[in-house]
Amino acid sequence: MKAKIFAVLAAAFYAVNIPLSKLLLAKTGPTMLAAFLYLGAGIGMVIYMALRKTSGAKAEKEPLGRKDLPYVIAMVALDIAAPILLMLGVERTTSANASLLNNFEIVATSLIALIIFREFISKKLWTAIFLVTAASIILSLDGSGEAFTFNSGSLMILGACICWGFENNCTKMISGKSSEEIVAVKGCFSGLGSLIIALIIGEAFPALVTVAEILILGFVSYGLSINFYIMAQKDLGAAKTSVYYSIVPFLGVLFSMILVGERPSLQFYIALLIMVAATVFIVKDTTELQHTHEHTHVHTHEHRHGDLVHTHPHEHTHSHLHTHGADHESHTHSHDFNDSHNHIHPAL
């Protein structure tokens, strides 16, 4: 039960990011906002790691090494571009739209994994990809005029999702390393890179109170969300945790209505229904990745009898076939699939 609560908290903490970011954009520029959101996650994770080290807790996975550097550099560069595009998009469209459009990250990650890394995509996931793409097109169209035109804010969010799609595949290549260190590196260096860009393009430095608010939001929506996600995975496994995490876009829509007071159009609700259908296919596909079965291990082995050693050749070896009663077991198999949330995090 505790693991399920952690999974829902992880989803809720991440879902609140876009609606609150929409409110914070009234106080600062989109690039500054992206910078301090990531710095909040990175600095918060550094403090968390320091506290763990002080308490004597051992690292669960090995740290990043020199051979991981190409993936780390690509990951940081993409994590500079993606949140800036996201905040520019949130500035130009509704936060409810942005929350739903974030689902396009699944499409981008899956297609990149298929084309570049030759990963398998099931029929259910193909169906989900088609539905998410259709809903994303509907959300990207602006029908306020005489003709439908593409909404620039939605296109920027789709661009962010494509960047995160590449980033997810880079992160997957180093997913065996410490997730805490990965988040700390991504948060600190990507945030610093975005901050430099914000200063170069002339965005005003926000008030210190606003900086503190953004840092806290970054730590909660990225840092704490990731931490709860990892805690949930320990008991639920990757597949089940991903199922719980699929509620993120819908929580984002709910928070947008409550916190920002948005009232979406009919066009939005059509896209919402399509996204719900896509999520059902994603959930079904994810749960089918895991199957549990019982089996008995049957061993054959060759051996020598006592001190008697045969020195002449045999035409065949002899084996004893036996079963071990104690080896009768049940366990769960998880297939290595395009899991964009190995999850370090869908958008960090």
Question: What would a concise description of this structure say?
Answer:
The chain has 348 residues and is mainly alpha-helical.
Notes on the structure:
The structure is a single chain. This protein has 348 residues and is mainly α. The protein contains twelve helices and six strands. A two-stranded antiparallel sheet has the order 1-2. Strands 3-6 form a two-stranded antiparallel ribbon. A hairpin with a 6-residue loop joins strand 1 and strand 2.
Q: In order across it, which strands form the biggest sheet?
A: 1-2
Percent strand equals 5-15%
- Name the shape in a single word: globular
Radius of gyration: 24 Å
What is the number of helices? Answer: 12
The largest sheet is:
2 strands, antiparallel
What class, by secondary structure content?
A: mainly alpha
Mean pLDDT: 82
Secondary structure elements and their pairing?
Layout: H1 2-15, H2 17-24, H3 30-54, H4 69-92, H5 95-101, H6 104-115, H7 123-140, E1 141-142, E2 149-150, H8 152-173, H9 179-200, H10 208-245, H11 248-260, H12 266-288, E3 290-295, E4 298-301, E5 320-323, E6 329-334
Antiparallel strand pairs: 1-2, 3-6, 4-5
